Amino acid sequence: MDLKNKVLNDQIKPEELRIGNLIYIPETNQVAFISMVHKHLGVYVNDGFIILGFHQIRKIKLNDEMVKSVGYEFDNDNILKFGNCLYFLDDFLQIASGPAPIVNLKCEFVHELQNAHFALFNNEICFDRNLIEKLR
After folding, report:
1. Do residues 86 and 120 lie in contact, with contact meaning Cβ atoms separated by under 8 Å?
2. 96 has a pLDDT exceeding 90
3. Looking at the predicted structure, is the pLDDT value of residue 129 above 90?
4. Among 54, 62, 45, which Cα is nearest to 110's?
5. How many CA within 13 A on the CB side of residue 59?
6. Res 94 pLDDT > 70
């Protein structure tokens, strides 16, 4: 499946992004990591050598391959798990300490999972470079 079919055409808002987020560039059919976010100008990619306006980048929808490459997995009930505490159910992230979730976050796109993971665990999700190349 072509990467263009896996992205959403909605424009990304600056407040959704941070350094290290993975985005899609439709004009070049490339995936890139953000190296800097400027609220008014856009994002810098490729270690700051290229600047793109927010209208030039797109969100990447989460898929099975990406999820597995960063240590998450689906169980038999189609719930996405990471370790013993993080679960996705019906597009919502639920952090459980016991039987009831204490936090709910919607994570539908790659950058949302990256941001939620970083906020919860204080470390980056390391995407497999081969997977990124495969998506081009």
Report:
1. yes
2. no
3. no
4. 62
5. 20
6. no
Quote the radius of gyration of the chain (alpha carbons, Å).
15
Instruction: Please state the pTM of the whole predicted model.
Output: 0.75
Task: Look at the alpha carbons of 81, 84, 85, 90 in this order and tell me if their dihedral is positive or negative.
Answer: positive
Residues 6+ apart with CB under 8 A from 127: 22, 66, 69, 70
The token duo for 111 is: 């950058």
Whole-number pLDDT of residue 34:
93
Nearest to 112 by CA among 91, 90, 89: 91
- Give one word for 132, left, alpha or beta, with left for phi > 0 and alpha for psi -120 to 50: alpha
- 3-class SS string, the chain: CCHHHHEECCCCCHHHCCCCCEEEECCCCEEEEEEEEECCCEEEECCCCEEECHHHCEEEECCHHHHHHCCCEECCCCCEEECCCEEEECCEEEEECCCCEEEEEECCEHHHHHHHHHHHHCCCCCCCHHHHHHHC
**Whole-number pLDDT of residue 1:** 46
Mean pLDDT, range 75-103, rounded to an integer: 56
Q: Tell me the CA end-to-end span of the chain in Å, nearest whole number.
A: 10
